[in-house]
Design goal:
A hairpin with a 4-residue loop joins strand 6 (about 125-130) and strand 7. The protein has two domains: about 5-150, Rossmann fold (3-Layer(aba) Sandwich), CATH 3.40.50; about 155-300, 3-Layer(aba) Sandwich (Rossmann fold), CATH 3.40.50.410. The protein is built from twelve helices and 13 strands. It has helices at about 5-10, 20-30, 45-55, 70-75, 90-100, 110-115, 120, 180-190, 200-210, 235-250, 270-275, 290-300, and strands spanning about 35-40, 60-65, 75-80, 85-90, 100-105, 125-130, 135-140, 145-150, 155-160, 165-175, 220-225, 255-260, 280. It is about 35% helix and about 25% strand. Helix 9 runs parallel beside helix 10 (about 235-250). The chain is an alpha/beta fold and about 300 residues long.
Length: about 300
């Protein structure tokens, strides 16, 4: 029987199979078929690919896809070295030439004009045309293309209020919708408006989350200040208690809330609302784009 210690000693990255995924991977490899892997953050997709590449004794080339990834980043480009112009293969081309495994992480984030170069590799042709050099690289039997797609549904909401009877919760992106250019335009079009009646917004979004069948349900609240709506005296202790009650209701419904603020006085009220270790105060709003993905990955791994 193969133990985790024995697998580590053999040089294979540790991976504990859940079902028959290793057999499926091997079958696709021997049949020279591309493979799509889907799953939520932190479930072991990348480790699984590393494990299988080592088990099959094939070199692994991993590419993190994003919306600025170009075709040249994948296939290669001409570089100037000294007085010469030389061609340098990209990771996809190197994987094809060497009969390795090319693993495209988050392929849905790549632009369509970039991923179109994959088409000849995914059908019976199994070839990679290099337009800049005029070369047609034929994939050997050992080459395999593996693409990964994150399977975390998420929605984006913005809210504002003018008293109890006028709480607006604007849906920027629904769960099934892809985070595309139209969604980005909606985000960029947002501007400060109204007051911050947090309790009502939490209850509204919480109901949408409750209808989602998911193992983990996470609600991230990003605010620039404490609960406050002076139109009907929603402020002070009353506003805090209403928000705290809404958060308690979310947890009772199986939803994990986490608070984020750029309010430097957030330490005065966030521990009472969210509890220790369940909030963050950012000193600089420009750090949010870099910090949020890491925070999201950590929180989706926590689960509770």
């Amino acid at each position: 029987m193969s133990t985790p210690a024995a697998r580590e000693a053999s040089g294979l990255p540790l991976y504990l199979p859940q079902r028959n995924e290793r057999e499926v991977f091997r079958s696709a490899y021997h049949r020279q078929l591309p493979l799509l892997i889907k799953g939520p953050t932190g479930c072991g997709k990348t480790r699984f690919v590393r494990h299988m590449a080592a088990a099959l004794r094939r070199p692994l080339y991993t590419v993190a896809c994003h919306d600025e990834l170009s075709a040249a980043d994948l296939v290669g480009r001409f570089l100037i070295t000294g007085e010469e112009t030389v061609w340098q293969d990209g990771p996809l081309t190197r994987a094809v030439r060497e009969g390795g495994i090319c693993y495209l992480d988050e392929v849905v984030e790549a632009r369509k004009d970039t991923t179109v170069i994959l088409h000849p590799l995914t059908d019976d042709r199994r070839e990679l045309p290099l337009e800049k050099t005029g070369e047609l690289v034929k994939a050997p039997p050992e080459f395999m293309l593996v693409v990964q797609e994150l399977q975390n549904d998420f929605a984006l909401y913005a809210f504002s209020s003018y008293g109890r009877a006028h709480v607006e919760c604007l849906r920027i992106k629904d769960f099934p919708e892809r985070y595309s250019d139209p969604v980005r335009q909606r985000v960029l079009a947002l501007s400060p408006d109204g007051s911050t009646r947090i309790g009502a917004a939490l209850r509204h979004v919480g109901r949408a989350l409750e209808r989602r069948a998911a193992r983990h349900r996470l609600l991230l609240l990003l605010t620039d200040g404490r609960p406050y709506d002076p139109a009907d005296r929603y402020q002070g202790r009353y506003a805090l208690e209403d928000t705290r009650r809404a958060l308690i209701e979310l947890r009772a419904g199986g939803i994990y809330p986490f608070g984020l603020t750029i309010d430097q006085q957030g330490q005065e009220y966030l521990p009472y609302l969210f509890g220790p270790g369940k909030y963050l105060v950012f000193s600089n709003v420009t750090s949010l784009p870099e910090s949020l993905p890491r925070l999201y990955a950590r929180l989706t791994g926590l689960g509770k």
